[in-house]
Amino acid sequence: MKIKALFISDVHLGSKGSKATELLETLKQYEPEYLFIVGDFIDGWLLKKRHYWTQDFTNVIRKILSYSKKGTQVIYITGNHDDFLRHYTPLDLGENIKIVDEYIFEDYYITHGDLYDGIVSLKWLGVLGSIGYEMAIGIDHFMKRLGYKRSLSKYLKKKVKNAVKFITNFETQLAYQAKERNCKGVIAGHIHTPADRLIKGIHYVNCGDWIENNSYIIYNNRKFTLKTSNINNSIPLGETARTRISKLISEN
């Protein structure tokens, strides 16, 4: 399917929880003019601790390189887990691959979002949380094999994010940053919570992740659509995210 743009974030290649196989199948469905990788594509934090790399990870990178060879403009926005790239940005790799820290597309501000997250400003705490989160994902997989359906990693991440909500309201801050740049919307990742809603007149869209939600955004015919490779969640995904976020805000 030919589309104007495809947005993915938080793939975390190098993490045992990365759903690279599912992502590859999704990439094969589209022929985008632009591919936006909205941060945390490679999990540099975990790769510094130990080496874990699979053929699926390599296949995803090969597919993206194939996109660029066929004319797709690949825009890689750095995140906190691949912040080692920020030492070199902005960087052009050939004609069709750019690595940047932020980008504006169709009057939408695109950022991973970690620069506006109070947890990540304390980098040591973020790294600790990353390692603990991967452990929780491993426990999740084991528990699901035993028949348990509740996600420990989602539960822990929700609790941690609620505990630091007094530091920053992530989504509202991103809407503010978009408005400061005279943009009508913002596209982000980082918090692994797909969303599509208005915040003070700014269209806020979050790509989600490829650890649990397998979610992404397509842009075609001047419309952004939040989607997921999980067939059962394809229709209510955006609404579910909005409901969950609204509940969190109302509780705090």
How would you explain this protein's 3D organization?
The protein has eight helices and twelve strands. By secondary structure, it is α/β, with parallel strands linked by helices. The chain has one domain: 4-Layer Sandwich (Purple Acid Phosphatase, chain A, domain 2), CATH 3.60.21. A seven-stranded mixed sheet has the order 4-5-3-2-1-11-12, with helices on one face. Strands 6-7-8-10-9 form a five-stranded mixed sheet. Strand 1, helix 1 and strand 2 form a beta-alpha-beta unit. The radius of gyration is 17 Å and the shape is globular.
**N/C terminus separation:** 42 Å
- Whole-number mean pLDDT: 82
Shape, per Cα inertia axes: globular
| Name of the CATH first level | Alpha Beta
How are the strands ordered across the major sheet? 4-5-3-2-1-11-12
Order of helices and strands: EHEHHEEEEEHHHHEEEEEH
Largest sheet, in brief, is: 7 strands, mixed
| CATH homologous superfamily placement | Metallo-dependent phosphatases
| Radius of gyration over C-alpha positions, nearest whole angstrom | 17 Å
Number of β-strand runs: 12
The second-level CATH architecture is 4-Layer Sandwich
> Into which percentage range does the β-strand content fall?
15-25%
Tally of individual helices: 8
